[in-house]
């Protein structure tokens, strides 16, 4: 339990330290043309990714909204471990969001 808490604290700290607010052009069929990429928007998913539980509706909505940004987050060393984690893949699958192929 301590490691989950530590990961949560690190993720929140890093997400606030590196605000990834960039415009992303949609390259797929996500319908998210011109979405502003912001890793902080994925905070509703943090418990499911770090704890392995079911994602909330808010989490799935934000993942769908930020889908075109996931490659950018995966390439950012501050967020890569969260995007590539097994729990992240489960959360993406549960929300019907394709795992990014960058």
Automatic annotation (TrEMBL):
UniProt keyword Signal present: yes
Residues making up the signal peptide according to the UniProt record: 1-24
InterPro entries, sorted: Bifun_inhib/LTP/seed_sf (IPR036312), Bifunc_inhib/LTP/seed_store (IPR016140), nsLTP2 (IPR033872)
Pfam families per UniProt: Tryp_alpha_amyl
Keywords: Lipid-binding, Signal, Transport
Domain Bifunctional inhibitor/plant lipid transfer protein/seed storage helical: 39-102
SUPFAM superfamilies associated with the record: Bifunctional inhibitor/lipid-transfer protein/seed storage 2S albumin (SSF47699)
Lineage top rank: taxon: Eukaryota
PANTHER family: BIFUNCTIONAL INHIBITOR/LIPID-TRANSFER PROTEIN/SEED STORAGE 2S ALBUMIN SUPERFAMILY PROTEIN (PTHR33214), BIFUNCTIONAL INHIBITOR_LIPID-TRANSFER PROTEIN_SEED STORAGE 2S ALBUMIN SUPERFAMILY PROTEIN (PTHR33214:SF73)
Protein name in the entry: Non-specific lipid-transfer protein 2
Gene: LOC104787682
